[in-house]
Amino acid sequence: MTSGSRRRNRYVPPPKLGIRYQEELPEIVCSRTEKFLTHAELVQLMEWKLTRGKFRPMLQKMIASNSVSSVESCTRKAFKLLPDVSAAIAELTKLKAVGPATASAVLVTGAPQEAAFMADEVLESIPGLVPIKYTLKHYILYLDKVRECVEQLNTNDSVNDWTPHKIEQCLWTWAVAKSVKPSLLESPIMYQNKMSNNEKLTEMRPTKRQRVQ
């Protein structure tokens, strides 16, 4: 795999994995009488997570080594512990290969109003969270800052539908755009000025016939 491929994988998960995690899995989890993840769903969630941040291929085998019963029991108990996010994450980290970041991804599938995925790009965009520590304490510090944003936005937004997960998605998109294509973040006025300048340069550039003469 080339460095370019690794860079693309970090930011752009395969479409099916992204749709599965962001849209299909939450619908399935929330449709259950009691929220939980199956073994297969947790394995697929890890596959999606490995497209974010540092790639650790051994985690896929480790997550699959959990028993079917332990995954369902542990995730079921974690959702019941909410809104105590600390207790829910502590329960989930009893599973093999599940740290605070993966645990946060699990919670988001059934409770986006309570948790936000612990994405490297998001933490790096929030003052006071670098260097990143993959600990429960650091995750709660991150979640507290995200919740502050939720409160501020819901106070000023009449729709009042901001959640920690939605804030995380916005910050991740901004961070990725800044890294991959900064021009996307330019204001309309800045963009128009740049286009105007490019047009002027084009007009000033001599044509092929003029250069020959």
Beta content comes to under 5%
Tell how many strands the DSSP assignment holds: 0
Number of helices: 12
Q: Helix/strand/pairing class, anyone?
A: mainly alpha
Low-confidence stretches: 1-12, 200-204, 206-213
Entry keywords:
213 residues; disordered C terminus; single chain; disordered N terminus; mainly alpha
Write up what this structure looks like.
This protein is mainly alpha-helical. The protein has one domain. It has twelve helices and no strands. Helix 2 (15-31) packs antiparallel against helix 3 (39-49), helix 3 (39-49) packs antiparallel against helix 4 and helix 5 packs antiparallel against helix 6 (85-92). The chain is globular and about 50 Å long.
Can you summarize this structure?
With 213 residues, this protein is mainly α. It is 67% helix and 0% strand.
Question: Which helices and strands occur, and which strands form pairs?
Answer:
Layout: H1 3-11, H2 15-31, H3 39-49, H4 58-64, H5 68-81, H6 85-92, H7 100-110, H8 120-124, H9 136-156, H10 164-180, H11 188-204, H12 208-212
Helix pairs in contact: 2-3, 3-4, 5-6, 6-7
